[in-house]
Design a protein that fits this description.
homodimer, spermidine synthase activity (chains A, B), transferase (chains A, B), Spermidine Synthase, Chain: A, domain 2, 7-stranded mixed β-sheet, Rossmann fold, alpha/beta, EC 2.5.1.16 (chains A, B)
Chain lengths: 284, 284
């Protein structure tokens, strides 16, 4: 009998991936970690039965969560990553020589260890000398961090259920604002606009952030293995506008080869469908 | 036992929708037609077991296949639709008072009759007095049509397997070119770039078209119920460039309410991911 991974992406909608074998299944203090080898997607990594990444399409998520802010401010030096235990976000960040320090705060050390063992394509740069790993709660970490420490914070979290929940609160966004420099940018994964289960959270998060940051916009990407395939990211900023301050020529001079991101797509990704724009304008 | 519709979107990848009940299942001369009522997507219409549309997300496909060319040439008068038996493309076209004639050529009359009975949300405008329905092979229809008949041809077809196959050939595109006016535009659904099964067809079709039309570009949309959720359309044209000739102010004066399409998104939809751009530049 062939084995299938099946995820109920939202009530009444399922997504299935045929698997070659299960490579890992373990319970951490926080969640269930599973890794599979699949036919179409290469390695598949799930937390509590939800797709975090696949080897085939992770480049889309990681391109968009990293290169969008980096192309708006090419002089970013100090970065904080919250979550992101698979290492993909750090991998893309380490490609910038201008970055001097990357603090990564992942609540679940077992996720990092599992990724280092089984997902080297994302995790291999976690040993970069600029990277400092902290295995603790991101909410506590930002509360204890000094003012104006970071040029960029990337919240690479799970959905706002379980360990990720506190990363979608006003208190957390307030602390992010405080520990960002006057040129600071906050990027967070922003859920899907399509299914109400996700768009409700997306609207709530966006309403909180836009009351804190002077610039607060949303951009999108095609991520085939996430619910609906239509995924959003939040770009919140104290000074830089994601379109007006885009440094395309300077970014292109870095000659970073990317499979998804490019400067035209950067601009295009902020052009949202009408129903998404209307959703973001609604108050809660 | 709850019933699920399950589609193997590409080998080793399945998409499932929980259904309330099956409304219709019939065999036409050409294909199997099924219509279901579902929990999350409202009505679901499939041909040969592949999703053609759902009530919840059909607005995306129909917005993008119609409003993109109409906003580039707001003076389009004569339109030919090949396929599109569900009526959604015609529905969007009939919103333009400037359009004088819509010839719709659908090979399978049973698709139109089933849609008129069960999918009124897309099919209700097929009775518009400007619409002429032809139940015949689109390939034969274009071969017999006079020169310079149409300002716009929309190929709203199934995949290039089964009845849709001939709509992806050089001969067909040559005929389309011939029967378009000197300002003519050809739009066709262009498959997905993500899974090789589809992207192979997409590249083949694009290579053929770009040797015929002076302007030949590709744009994208998020369509959650199509394989990978990342779907492409071809914009091929004798005169008008889809970006440089976009008539945003004139289109916006029409005050057509759209849920997906808007002028910014029009521009953004042509900004393709790097891997898709590279794919389109490759020769076969």
């Amino acid at each position: 009998m062939p084995l299938w991974y099946n995820e109920e992406q939202t009530e009444g909608v399922s997504f299935g991936i045929k698997i070659k074998e299960q490579i890992l299944s373990e319970e951490s203090q926080f969640q269930t970690i599973d890794i599979y080898d699949t036919y179409e997607f290469g390695k598949l990594f799930t937390l509590d039965g939800l797709v975090m990444l696949t080897e085939k399409d992770e480049f889309i998520y990681h391109d968009m969560i990293v290169h969008v802010p980096m192309a708006v401010n090419t002089e970013i030096k100090n970065v904080l990553v919250i979550g992101g235990g698979d290492g993909g976000t750090v991998r893309e960040l380490t490609r910038y020589n201008s970055i001097e320090k990357i603090d990564m705060v992942e609540i679940d050390e077992m996720v990092v260890r599992a990724s280092q063992k089984h997902l080297p394509f994302t995790a291999s740069k976690l040993t970069d000398p600029r990277v400092n790993l902290f295995f603790e709660d991101g909410i506590v970490f930002v509360k204890n961090a000094q003012n104006s420490m970071y040029d960029l914070i990337i919240v690479d979290s799970t959905d706002p259920i379980g360990p990720g929940e506190g990363l979608f609160t006003k208190e957390f966004y307030d602390q992010c604002f405080r520990i960002l420099t006057s040129e600071g940018i906050l990027i967070n994964q922003h859920e899907s606009p399509f299914y109400p289960q996700f768009s409700k959270e997306m609207k709530r998060a966006h309403n909180k952030i836009k009351n804190i940051f002077p610039i607060s916009m949303v951009y999108q990407a095609h991520i085939p293995t996430y619910p609906s395939g239509h995924w959003l990211f939040g770009f919140s900023s104290k000074k830089f506008h994601p379109l007006e301050d885009l440094k395309s020529p300077r970014w292109e001079m870095l000659k970073l080869k990317t499979k998804y991101y490019n400067s035209d797509l950067h601009l295009g990704s902020f052009a949202l469908p009408t129903y998404v724009k209307e959703m973001l304008e609604e108050e809660e």
